[in-house]
Amino acid sequence: MPPPAPGDREARRKDVSEAVWAVLADKGFGGLTLRAVAGAMNGSTGMLMHYFPTKRALIAHALDLLEVRTAARPRRARPAEGLPSVRATLLDILPLTPDDTACNRIWVSSWDLALADEGLAGEQAGRYARLRGMVRPHLEAASRLHQLGDANAEAEQLAAVAVAFAHGLVVQALFDPDRFPADVQTAMLDDFLASLGRSPLTPPDARTPD
User: Fold this and answer.
1) From CA 196, how far away is CA 68, in angstroms rounded?
2) What separation in angstroms does the CA of 86 have from each of 45, 95, 164?
3) Of 12, 24, 32, 73, which residue is 20 to 30 A from 82 by alpha carbon distance?
4) Host domain of residue 31
5) Banded pLDDT at 201 (limits 50, 70, 90)
6) What is the pLDDT of residues 27-73, one digit of tens each?
């Protein structure tokens, strides 16, 4: 089969991405194959080979698509500087609604594939770095506003702790939704943020000297 003409290729790109997303939403990364995507498009695997010559290319595209879809979801307004904005940012990560739960399930299903491929793992590490970068400015503001219990805590480290907390809660909520419904997740997040304000996160000997 000859490759599609440039105009046709661009016209089909959206259809291909929609089909990839449909497979991800239904089966996760474990069910993401050229055959499954072709079936979602009522097309052929030969046609898809013009877009994804390898399974890795398909997975890389799916991860990029997932990141774009995640970023495009409605976000909560940032109510005030500092910890209130940290709260809103982390609430956007948690599986508090059916749509958020579905998106998080897809992300978690991608981890095995990313861990098995050095290049994909590096790209995933970059995504986490960008996520920490979203949280860090709000923690810097919290420090300026004296909302943190540890005046010596670095915003970069706190951002890593906050993202680790949120993603740990995501995993527990996905595997045990009855134990971690939306109200429990929110209460746990509020307790975590309160702990940032009332107690140091680092032992005295690990703090940056004045």
Assistant:
1) 31
2) 44, 16, 13
3) 73
4) 6-69
5) very low
6) 888 888 889 988 988 888 888 888 888 888 888 888 888 888 777 77
Question: Which single residue is written with the structure tokens 């996905």?
Answer: 174
41 and 133 housed in the same domain: no
| C-alpha atoms less than 13 angstroms from C-alpha of 201 in its C-beta half-sphere | 19
Lowest mean pLDDT among 110-119, 128-137, 187-196: 110-119
8-42 burial code (b ≥16 CB/10 A, e <16): eeeebeeebbebbbebbeeebbeebebebbbebbe
Instruction: Tell me how far apart the alpha carbons of residues 140 and 148 are, in angstroms, rounded to a whole number.
Output: 10
Q: What percent of the chain has pLDDT over 70?
A: 89
For residue 136, give both structure tokens.
């860090």
Both structure tokens of 124? 């995933």
Residue 159: count of CB within 10 angstroms of its CB: 23
The CATH code of the domain that includes 63 is 1.10.10.60
Listed in sequence order, the residues at least 6 apart from 45 whose beta carbon sits closer than 8 Å to its beta carbon are: 34, 35, 38
What is the pTM (predicted TM-score) of this model?
Answer: 0.75
CATH number at residue 197: 1.10.357.10
3-state percent breakdown (helix, strand, coil) of the chain, nearest 5: 70, 0, 30
Same domain, residue pair 142 and 99: yes
Look-up: residue for tokens 């698509």? 65
